[in-house]
Design a protein that fits this description.
13 strands; globular; nine-stranded mixed β-sheet; alpha/beta
């Protein structure tokens, strides 16, 4: 089951209480592609970069097995750039700069070989762009999408039209409340599902994630790390890991979704250990299996002995 990932490939400058990294490889599609490749899924990347994007970054993606036929280089512009500073608790951040550059005019045009994927992963993009990607695919894929508060605020009608065509929506708790108008996450998820997505995953950062699928509600913990260096890309890594497991399993039922939430959470726990996607470029399948076992022990409910 192949995965089509459409999103951003970018330069990031990140500052945390523990260090600073200048113009490193970033972007939603970068993290999602690399995460899915850890699971061995065939991954096709569609994104745009500028004339300033180094070949070494492209080679890093190729070295991990990402199909970059759909990575477009615009010779007349510069690559999307984002800069941010995280607060001490790493749950909040200040955006210091956002330069859309070539992303401002990006209109996905999928190669012929990309038009019949098993799973479509739509990173955080303008919902009209997300819809255009769906239009270009065969219509048989599971569509997994991300969004953010900017689109909820500024393009609500377009977002709702796109959500009606999405199977799985992955958002954080703040976005779920904002999109639904409901403070309670259970009610918020129900309201979001009424917009179209059959399955909703609500990420809660260091408090784990909630899966709402059919009549099931599943809660996955977050891995308690001693050293968190950079949380950038954790949500996109979750998205890629989630899709990667479904592709590996060849299934999209409720049980596969629950497993995929754990796998996505486990991969996200690796990426925050270093600046940028460095850990995704080195993490092994054996390391991931070990982290998944740790998640299983974390969430195991002991037998309750009654009197």
């Amino acid at each position: 089951m192949s995965i089509l990932v459409v999103g951003t490939v970018a330069f990031d400058t990140v500052e945390t209480p523990f260090g600073r990294a200048e113009r490193i490889l970033g972007g939603s599609a970068t993290y999602a592609c690399l995460a899915a490749r850890v699971l061995g899924a065939p991954v096709q990347l569609n994104a745009v970069v500028g004339r300033d994007f180094p070949d070494a970054h492209v080679e890093a993606l190729v070295s991990r097995g990402v199909d970059v036929e759909g990575l477009v280089r615009d010779p007349d512009g510069e690559t999307f750039f984002w800069a941010g500073r995280y607060h001490y608790d790493l749950n909040t951040r200040d955006t210091l700069a956002t330069h859309l550059n070539v992303l401002a005019t990006f209109e996905p045009d999928l190669p012929a070989s990309y038009r019949a994927p098993g799973i479509v992963c739509l990173g955080n993009l303008d919902p009209t762009v997300q819809a255009s990607v769906i239009d270009q695919t065969s219509g048989d894929a599971l569509v997994v999408a991300d969004t953010m508060n900017f689109w909820i605020d500024n393009t609500p009608d377009a977002l709702r039209e796109t959500l009606a065509r999405v199977d799985v929506l992955v958002i954080n708790d703040e976005e779920a409340r904002q999109l639904s108008g409901e403070p309670n996450l259970v009610r918020a998820a129900r309201a979001v599902r009424a917009l179209g997505p059959e399955t909703v995953i609500v990420k809660k950062g260091e408090h784990g994630a909630l899966l709402f699928c059919g009549d099931d509600v599943f809660s996955a913990p977050a891995y308690p790390l001693e050293d968190v260096v950079d949380p950038t890309g954790a949500g996109d890594t979750f998205l890629g890991g989630f899709a990667g497991h479904l592709a590996r399993a060849g299934a999209t039922d409720a049980d596969a979704m629950r497993q995929a939430v754990v796998v996505g959470s486990a991969l996200a726990s690796f990426v925050v250990e270093a600046f940028g996607p460095d850990r995704l470029l080195t993490v092994t399948a054996a390391e991931l299996d070990g982290r998944i076992d740790a998640f299983r022990r974390l969430s195991a409910v002991p037998t309750i002995v009654s009197a």
